[in-house]
Amino acid sequence: MTLRSADSVIVLDFETTGLSPNQGDRAIEIGAVKIQNGQVTDTFQELMNPGFRVSAFIEGYTGITNSMLSRADSCEAVMARFADFIGSDNLVAHNASFDQRFLDAELATINRGYGGEFACSMLISRRIFQDAPNHKLGGLVAYKQIDNDGVFHRALADSEMTAKLWLLMLDEMEKDYNISMPSFKLMQQIAKKSKSQVSSFLRQV
After folding, report:
1. Could you give the percent of the chain with pLDDT greater than 90?
2. pTM of the model
3. Neighbour-count burial for 157-192, b at 16+ CB within 10 Å, e otherwise
4. Contact 1, 9 (CB under 8 A)
5. What angle do helix axes 195-204 and 155-177 make, rounded to 10 degrees?
């Protein structure tokens, strides 16, 4: 992989019918923000019909109703468009293992893939913002006073807040460690360091 900069990525978020595609759960909404050279240049948001009714819990949790989904395109149609959107860009998500599982599963159904790699903004935030009371997206938005419209658990809103968090972490690294234009690979490395190692690791960078 080339050492592409961390300030050019696609930040994505899925809303789903449950926790695991291995248990038959499907995506019901995808939202994404394209960042190029530290600026938001495009967004993607679509509901998708999983082919079955979602539970009352998921309706309440996401605000996405069965009526809304009945009018949406199929997962396969939406994911084909989303695969075109992400291309070979690197990908960021908050709790990325969850979103990557659904991205992989949904793209596998249409024999599509992606050329980039994943980084987890939640794992990185645990190293960069060690004093935060928690590292849920909503908690970090409140802790860092990130501008938001109060909407959570909708895919585009969560992607937009994660994108702001991602860019804020890049700013903090420049301010605290004089690291400008960190590579995406460096961000992946930070996620794998213990909290006690992060400061000395970044000073050496």
Report:
1. 95
2. 0.96
3. bbbbbbbbbbbbbbeebeeebebeebbbbbbbbbbe
4. no
5. 60
